[in-house]
């Protein structure tokens, strides 16, 4: 979930990075002041904030704090800086109309709860109070589990089993009446381009790479181009992506077709560690394989009528003992009860403070791109909190052959006897990491997974060599559900045939 610090900042980007970092620091210190004042102020918007130790000659009222024109007109050492990213220019007159914008929050889990709360606090007073946030749509397909309650603070025990999106929206709307949060309980893939187009900014608090790839593909494809091939600014919807893992996290700003996108940084995420069943059954190499053997293969044999209950200590002890036995047989060390729990439950440690910090950065960026009040993050902020606290911003550069954000034709050189199915397998295993590719040439459909009838009709092509299906150098079009509304241009040259 967190990327490695692969590309550091360099060259022209470094000076603005320093400023971004200090911006974050400044905002963080202001946030502390704001939240402490919030606890000591009554709900009345007009009550002047009681700001304990803050030495300000001009204390702001609660209403003024939530008012965007306060943010835009107040003196600030950073106010008139224009960022290196073309999100627009600071101009008070542009923002005097008190317009509110529609925001999409994807995910209502650990990050999502924090993001919704931060948005509500930024919007204090709503449109009439001068806030720019009011209308928020929150999407999540999950229901609330008891293990969520320690950090997903919008949920209570009575909510267990209910939709995360619905409960979170209701909580925010009840507690912060200036907000209008609309829930959607379902998958992001259920909605099409016309749905995503209505938002001014999208904030993602997703916990898995596949969904983030899909969302990134969708938002990038909403960009339209003018006659010169330049992106039309009004069609660019900033995507702010937050992610956390244990004590580290990251937040990044994606301006589709301008900055790097999520797909550009796919290499920074390790491919999924799915182990083939045959390895588990026959040749275990690491303790995880032995644990998988115990709960995937041995459990159903021993208890054919009972599902393994990962929350039951007896069940887990059984799995642990079997895994240990198997590990000893193969001379593998390292099987522990904690590891067994981790493998079976697929535990990713979740830390509430990391979620709070990362989502605060995300919402801070959202405020900046909505109001142009300051320069935006360029483009990646990482936070590490396991040993002390450290954060760093750097420019994540666009990948020159990114299938999503740089329109490009990819070239492959393959022997003409390569079968179509082996070509498709290469697209899944190689750098594109596709999931279920379909492929057509200019003259015919080579293989389509949907609809069923077409799959049946084209299935026979899978075992045919490429030379029977296409000419060398012919351009093929590849589509895949992991990249919505994107098609990959692919030119295959036969390595064994002279052109
Ligand atoms: Zn990209």
UniProtKB/TrEMBL annotation:
Stretch list, region Disordered: 1-77
GO function terms (MF aspect): ATP binding; NEDD8 activating enzyme activity
GO BP terms: protein neddylation
Compositionally biased intervals (Polar residues): 54-77
Function description: Catalytic subunit of the dimeric E1 enzyme, which activates NEDD8.
Family listed: Belongs to the ubiquitin-activating E1 family. UBA3 subfamily.
Name of this protein: NEDD8-activating enzyme E1 catalytic subunit
Protein source organism: Discostella pseudostelligera
């Amino acid at each position: 979930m967190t990327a490695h610090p692969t590309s550091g900042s360099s060259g022209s980007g470094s000076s603005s990075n320093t400023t971004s970092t200090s911006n974050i620091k400044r905002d963080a210190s202001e946030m502390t002041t704001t939240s402490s004042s919030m606890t000591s102020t009554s709900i009345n918007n007009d009550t002047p904030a009681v700001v304990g130790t803050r030495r300000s000659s001009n204390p702001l009222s609660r209403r003024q704090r939530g008012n965007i024109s306060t943010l835009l007109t107040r003196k600030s050492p950073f106010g008139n800086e224009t960022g290196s990213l073309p999100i627009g220019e600071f101009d008070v007159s542009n923002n005097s109309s008190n317009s509110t914008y529609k925001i999409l929050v994807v995910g209502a889990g650990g990050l999502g709860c924090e993001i919704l709360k931060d948005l509500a606090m930024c919007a204090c007073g709503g449109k009439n109070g001068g806030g720019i946030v009011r209308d928020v749509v929150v999407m999540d397909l999950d229901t609330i589990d008891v293990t969520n309650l320690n950090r997903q603070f919008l949920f209570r025990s009575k909510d267990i089993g209910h939709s995360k999106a619905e409960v979170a929206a209701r909580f925010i709307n009840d507690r912060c009446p200036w907000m209008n949060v609309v829930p959607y309980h379902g998958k992001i893939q259920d909605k099409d381009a016309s749905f995503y187009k209505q938002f001014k900014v999208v904030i993602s608090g997703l916990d898995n790479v596949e969904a983030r790839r899909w969302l990134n593909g969708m938002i990038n494809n909403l960009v339209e181009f003018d006659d010169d091939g330049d992106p039309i600014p009004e069609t660019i919807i900033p995507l702010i992506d937050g992610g956390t893992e244990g004590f580290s996290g990251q937040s990044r700003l994606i301006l589709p077709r301008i900055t790097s996108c999520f797909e550009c940084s796919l290499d920074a995420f390790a491919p999924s560690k799915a182990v083939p069943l045959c390895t588990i059954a026959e040749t275990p190499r690491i303790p995880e394989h032995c644990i998988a053997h115990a709960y995937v293969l041995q459990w159903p044999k021993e208890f054919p009528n009972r599902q393994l209950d990962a929350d039951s200590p007896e069940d887990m002890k059984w799995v642990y003992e079997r895994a240990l036995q198997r590990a000893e047989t193969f001379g593998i060390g390292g099987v522990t009860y904690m590891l067994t729990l981790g493998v079976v439950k697929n535990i990713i440690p979740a830390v509430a403070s990391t979620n709070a910090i990362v989502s605060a950065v995300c919402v801070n960026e959202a405020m900046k791109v909505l109001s142009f009040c300051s320069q935006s993050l360029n483009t990646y902020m990482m936070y590490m909190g396991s040993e002390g606290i450290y954060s760093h911003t750097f420019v994540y550069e666009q990948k020159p052959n990114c299938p999503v954000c740089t329109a490009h034709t990819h070239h492959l050189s393959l022997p003409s006897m390569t079968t179509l199915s082996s070509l498709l397998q290469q697209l899944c295993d190689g750098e594109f990491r596709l999931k279920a590719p379909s492929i057509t040439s200019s003259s015919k459909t080579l293989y389509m997974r949907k609809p069923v009838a077409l799959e049946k009709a084209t299935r026979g092509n899978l075992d045919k060599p490429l030379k029977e299906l296409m000419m060398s150098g012919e351009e093929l079009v590849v589509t895949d559900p992991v990249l919505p509304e994107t098609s990959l241009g692919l030119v295959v040259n036969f390595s064994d045939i002279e052109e």
